[in-house]
Amino acid sequence: MYEVYPRSFADSDGDGDGDLEGLRQRLPYLAELGVDGIWIAPWYPSPMADGGYDVSDFCGIHPMFGTLDDADAVVREAHQLGLKVIIDIVPNHTSDQHPWFQAALAAGPGSPERGRYLFRDGRGESGEVPPNNWISCFGGHGWTRVVEGDGRPGQWYQHSFASEQPDLNWANEAVLAAFDDIIRFWLDRGVDGLRVDAAPALAKAAGLPDADYGGDLRFLTLEWIGNPHWDVDDVHSIFRRWRALGDAYEGDRVFVAEAVVSSAERLSHYLRSDELHSAFNFQYMKSAWDAGVLRDVVEETLAALAPVGAPATWVLTSHDEVRPVTRYGRRTTSSAHFADGEGETSDRALGTRRARAAAMLMLALPGGAYIYQGEELGLPQVDDLPAIVLQDPVFKRSGGAVRGRDGCRVPLPWSGAQTPFGFSPGGARPWLPQPVEWAELTVEAESADPDSMLALYRNALRLRHDVGELRADEIAWREAPDGVLDFDRGGGARCVVNISGSAIELDPEYTVLLSSVPLEGEALPPDATAWLVRRA
Ligand code: TEU
């Protein structure tokens, strides 16, 4: 699957923002790349306080992106090209500009309108202290106080993310019923599935008790156990309801959870046979470039998902993460938090080399894989965007201490030697500036270079289709030196990843199908991966 971040994919009308017509025109590129489908990040009307994850109408299309007709055309033409289409649904919160929230502000305390959200009176003498100690993912506390109709400070509302993203109250049947209709609206239009944003956030512990963050006031959901606003067990009844709703449709309709939780075992709960179908593997995505760590995550993932019969997914990055060629070239190669590794210098050549090896590892594992737009071009994180163009609420809410995620959202370079590199027609200025060095990283330039990252992704995806063993369910580990991953796939195929400091000899009984670096003789150098097949 290929993640499309529509604002940065392709701009057809020259306003510097990507749009659905731009996406439609470029669908053949994705079919040719060899992916089976696309996941489109939010395309809804939105004030863009959080890159479109602040939705003001769940059944519309942002005018920046086009119209519902344009969305239908994307789905129709994707299907004609054999691509599935999954769209993002953002059920945890709305925009503060959503009519529901505006009605809640107007209606006042105790109203059914406020009951759609988590409004509470404050503590302290005049309600000036937030109702509890919950924090926001983007920094600061997770409550904002409103001004009531009489002009006085009044109740507080809870938000797991920015203050422009009030959390919905999923204990309220009216919210459940409204989302049933929203999900049907899109399934009726023919989308193949929904990616469920921030799935573990939906349910909150009854009574909204204080959380114990153990002194670390960061949103470290990978580590949270027993948190009252994340991965609360009540969340599962919502997904059982959705599964029943999706199963009533003809064809294969899937739900994909975005669920950053504390273990593969906790994740497996979302993937029980009557809940969601698959989930992004954040344990894997956030792992350091380290053979032992990666092997442990692969084994834990497969062991945890087997009992629920769910397929694994493997993913290196997304619109929220530091781009792999930058991350793997830093000293800190893990990414538990947005800020991890920020400010460290990155060795681009080393990072690119490792990202190539990592891509081949990911694509050799049993299950699905997600590629984020630009990953296939080896784009680096743009970590020197001027502060004036930064839009991520992380930047603002951290008082500028954390730059945030804009650096992985810079518009794609398609062709030509000058910005906007074919992203926009007529030389328009893209909404985030592209580095001039991206002339070497355009689709056009990389298509002409057999050693490019794009060529590697195309070759790897083609082999995944053509060599059935690479798609087998089984994986069998072989004894390997420290720092080396070596496993069989489906009998005849084999993947070797060298994360040790020195070259290793490859088994002469095998021949190389694909390697992440050119090989000299029978040796696999450090930070490289080879796919092998047994000699006839
Ligand atoms: O991200 C939510 C989410 O769970 C992650 O931000 C997670 O908390 C983080 O990776 C911690 O490791 C989703 C979207 O992907 C993101 O772009 C939105 O900003 C966010 O939801 C709010 O809708």
Q: How much is the average pLDDT? A: 97
* Strand order in the largest sheet: 9-8-7-3-2-1-11-10
Please report the distance between the alpha carbons of the first and last residues: 33 Å
Shape: globular
| Largest sheet geometry | 8 strands, parallel
The helix count comes to: 14
Bound molecules: 1-O-alpha-D-glucopyranosyl-D-fructose
Per CATH, what is the topology of the largest domain? TIM Barrel
Query: What proportion strand?
Result: 5-15%
Assigned CATH class of the largest domain: Alpha Beta
Instruction: Let me know the number of strands.
Output: 18
When the domains are counted, the total is 3
Overall helicity: 25-40%
- Assigned CATH superfamily of the largest domain: Glycosidases
Overview of this structure, please?
Helix content is 26%, strand content 14%. The longest helix has 16 residues, at 173-188. It has 3 domains: 2-94 and 172-447, Glycosidases (TIM Barrel, Alpha-Beta Barrel), CATH 3.20.20; 99-158, Oligo-1,6-glucosidase, domain 2 (Alpha-Beta Complex); 474-534, Golgi alpha-mannosidase II (Immunoglobulin-like). Strand 1 (2-4), helix 1 and strand 2 form a beta-alpha-beta unit. The protein has 536 residues and is of the alpha/beta class. The strands form 4 sheets. Strands 9-8-7-3-2-1-11-10 form an 8-stranded parallel β-sheet. 1-O-alpha-D-glucopyranosyl-D-fructose (TEU) is lined by residues 50, 53, 90, 137, 161, 197-198, 219, 221, 258, 260, 319-320.
Key terms for this structure?
536 residues; alpha/beta; TIM Barrel; Oligo-1,6-glucosidase, domain 2; Immunoglobulin-like; 3 domains; eight-stranded parallel β-sheet; five-stranded antiparallel β-sheet; 14 helices; 18 strands; globular; binds 1-O-alpha-D-glucopyranosyl-D-fructose
